[in-house]
């Protein structure tokens, strides 16, 4: 018995070692390191900019506008660059540019924190302004490189590592999202503690050091994944669409590695022939990025999953998320930073539950129907947010002018409100100061005024709906992500996902503009109703996509035959979904 048990124990130990050295686990580890650094930096840079510019949101707002505008305009170009170069080159270049930019930005911020007084006196403060411009520019470059990394790893590498197994692809997508959920909470908390008990300068030094170490480890992990997955070296520029669109179609077994290498060489060389380069004029070179931008959006529109991608983008036009807007509103309604941190933790838990629900629903009902069920679940939960607008404690009053407070202060020659120094618990809970009342302290925090307590029924229903809706939200997000992975041809994955990122940023930018036009808490209820309307429109678009894809079998939800692909299409439908 002991001898029989010994080989079994060795097999188990060998399987554990094999998993921890597999390309899949190494990809997870590299993504965890990358996401941890990203979340720390995105949290810290906003606080740094507020701290540097006299506790004002001006630099933070400019930074957010520059980031959103850059991805909106350059998303297609970034995706096209991803498509035109080898996978390893794209991953390594974007990794180095991203981390080097963050390190350089951290060093500049440390210099500003150390010599801010001296910089103010040099050239009438223009040198300090130049430093601010440098910080925002370099941070924007880091964000663009991060976008390229996300496109190549999460939309391309993961598909190749999963191979022809859709279930494995779904599990990997869900695991990636769980890592995102955990780092969204833990990384800001970690760097927030360092900044609270140390100083902003120490925070800059820590983030710069982390990115330097992380860059070296991630570079090694990418190389290991590339070595363990030979198919990553095979990147064709042109292939029959039927071969590349269907993930479960058996690939040609007689393809030789040399053919795959030749495809890459042809792709890199044909666009840069010396004779063509001489013939191309200056005007054509200037026009090339605009042509790429146009072609990317046209290609995105012609995709079979266009409506599904648009449906996902419309979900970004909402104030019903745990960003600075919603948490700032909650703070005006009397919720403390500690309560908000607990609510954010609960939202992370429901987000992870959404990834679990996605894998289960996909096995039971198929990929397209999973998106329908997830959308219905999200919308049903958001009904609580609609109800909260009309419940006791809701400050909704459309008769109040959004700019009444600003106008009164201007006519009375009073200074406009600025942001007080962020409290540690508020920093840890929200990652941003309060944007709605221009302060990090609640509106009812003055003991001398002693206002009546605000009923919590409205804000409780609001956050109950937001937290519960994240189960459907993340399941729907994973559904659309996998639809894009499976149905976009390999040679267009980069540019199509780049345009998808641009659409997401466009709707996200519109939601911030919406808040700027109605910034007072009395108008927040209207923003909630508009947000739910956009979510409904997004899911209507997805319903139309599902209807066109599945036809009469749309509402037939049965357990698929395990011997067949989980997302088998109905007879006569050539789409993989």
Automatic annotation (TrEMBL):
The keyword Iron applies. Coiled coil: none annotated. SUPFAM superfamilies: MFS general substrate transporter. Keywords: Cell membrane, Ion transport, Iron, Membrane, Metal-binding, Transmembrane, Transmembrane helix, Transport. The chain crosses the membrane at residues 16-37, 57-82, 94-115, 121-145, 305-331, 337-360, 372-391, 454-473, 494-517, 523-543. Belongs to the ferroportin (FP) (TC 2.A.100) family. SLC40A subfamily. May be involved in iron transport and iron homeostasis. This is Solute carrier family 40 member.
